[in-house]
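Render Major facilitator superfamily MFS_1 in 3D.
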Amino acid sequence: MNTQYLNKFNIPRPILVLIIGGFIHSVGSSFMWPLNSIFMHNILGRSLTEAGALISLQALATLVGQFISGVLADRFGSRRVMIYGLIGAILPLILISCFPIWEVYAPGLLFYGFAIAFIFVPINALVFTLWPEGGRRGFNLLYVFNNAGVAVGTALGGFIAALSFKLVFLLNGLFFFIYLLMVLIFLPAKDIQSKPLSKSRVKVPIFKDRGFPVLIALCAAIFLMWGAYIQINTVLPVTMTNLGYSLPQYSILWTLNGVIIVAFQPVIHWIIRHWAPTLSRQFYVSCLFYAIGFLILLGNFPYPSYFIMMIIITLGEMLVLPGVPAAAALIAPEGKTATYQGVVGGAASGGRALGPILGGLAFDHYGGNMAWALALIFVSIALLPFYLYQRRERTFTQGTGTKEQAI
């Protein structure tokens, strides 16, 4: 492993490659995902039901890919699996840009969803393998740079689509290709010292691992937290438009979300230092922030309250989303880091998939307030698996030398 750190920030050079590459592919991906439904409906002439079904199937493909890629990364090495994932994401994007028809787009989007799981899971595994002493810090850097990429990509995607939807897919593929070149050139195999899983370890089922009960607790918690958080994506725009607010008034909340994630890192650092020095405390504080945000939504206050809600919930997001992968990495036995990341990532995908269905049912039958009440229930239940993690936290973190901080 390359142990030469950047002097100013103490970041290993391979980690810098991963986070800059993460920013690049996040920009490219964000050209496309906000526009998928519009492309299917307006360009390909498909119904919104068909568009929604395909997007749900893509999420399912990503979920399956996360489980598989984690096992393969431990068996054959995270870098190799990541390279295959990048190639697998580039190919369907090129095909769709050349042949923008439903018969190519539908299977291409499913394959793309499956392939990107082979990128995300190995990245998380490599962050911990290459920088174990960084603890939560490496995951937080990756999270911040990815969200910065989302902010840039979503801002530019509409302008690019106005020129050509083909260009949207082609540029996405180009950004993934740039990331592939960065991995091949600046992250050589000799810098990756993670050992592939030995045949003897392959035979040991994951459920026999000492950390497996804790892993299940983390999976349950992140499933519930995402099930709550995703309501802001799915239910909030409908409730706001029903109240007479415009889509730009809703969209600006997500611009605020991206700004907070990047600019409020000193605030998160202060919270971690003074309120939540351990991962379990970060999870509890995150639940508190989520609960306050959803209570604000339940109150049906005037428009400025939505800004306050977004600030508070984003602070909670900044604590839990990088924290859970970091916790999963700490409990993983040697040789199974990627497998544990795949399982946690699959649980998060499950929350993103099931949350909109349950929130939609609550909204359709009982109104928007029931969706926020459901989110509050999810967050409250998440306290239990977080408590189960806390009971075993010291067992896995003692002696690691990790220091919890933001960036």
